[in-house]
Amino acid sequence: EGRYTVSLGAGKEPDTFETNGKRFLLNLFDTTQGYICWKEGKAVDTFEQSIFEPLPPMETMTDHGPYVTDGDKRDGWKKQFSLLLREVSTGDQYVLKLSSPSACNSMGEFLDSLLEQTAMHDITAETPVIALKSESFKSQGFRNYKPIFELMEWKDNPDSTTATVEAAAIEAPKAEAAAEEKVSIPSSRKK
Fold it and tell me: Do the Cβ atoms of 155 and 169 come closer than 8 Å?
């Protein structure tokens, strides 16, 4: 439908998630590709691995059939991407799961172009910042939508040495306070 939604839990209608004007850090190391198996409208099995490893053939996945062959059902194994995103302005984190063929194709194309750029960027020191959009297209006479991922910039990661020093500065007063507390330790000796 050309919109992103946020799950509110099992049995609840998802809430619309507005993406206009928002930017997201894309965690490439926790972004996965894989397969999800649907049977009678429920996910019965999944296989996930890093986007940096080639996927095994779908035919090698466990057969959970027989599957319904009705055109409206999504039974059987389908490709899936799972992206870990952090909104730049709020720090809120999201997992975006994509399994429709058009969404997987769109994500595959985006990853191909993004991974080409890694020759110019150190992905251990920089994180891609993306915008989430959607685009309509016609398929078999019907209007459909696919997600569009737009690379906005590459952002430097915080210096790990600085982060470690800051974390130590926060923890030091806690450790001092704990050391000042007198704690009675029970003795195991009998009197």
Answer: no
Paired residues of 85 in beta bridges: 26, 94
Q: Quote the pLDDT of residue 171.
A: 54
What's the predicted TM-score (pTM) here? 0.73
Q: Is 187 helix (H, G, I), strand (E, B) or coil?
A: coil
Q: Are the C-beta atoms of residues 164 and 171 closer than 8 Å to each other?
A: no
Integer CA distances (angstroms), 65 to 38, 70, 76, in order: 10, 14, 7
* Euclidean distance between CA atoms 135 and 47, whole angstroms: 28
Residue 85 to residues 14, 101, 155, Cα–Cα distance (Å): 18, 21, 14
Q: pLDDT confidence of 177, banded at 50, 70, 90?
A: very low
pLDDT in tens, 113-170: 988 888 888 888 999 999 999 888 888 888 888 899 999 999 998 764 444 444 445 5
Q: Among residues 98, 170, 89, which one has the least CA distance to residue 134?
A: 98
In whole angstroms, what is the distance from residue 75 CA to residue 90 CA? Answer: 37
Helices (H), the chain: 101-117, 160-180
Given the DSSP bridges, would you call strands 76-87 and 24-39 parallel, antiparallel or unpaired?
A: antiparallel
Spell 71-81 as b/e; 16+ CB within 10 A means b: eeebbbbbbbb
Parallel, antiparallel, or unpaired for β 142-156 and 4-6?
unpaired
* Neighbour-count burial for 158-172, b at 16+ CB within 10 Å, e otherwise: eeeeeeeeeeeeeee
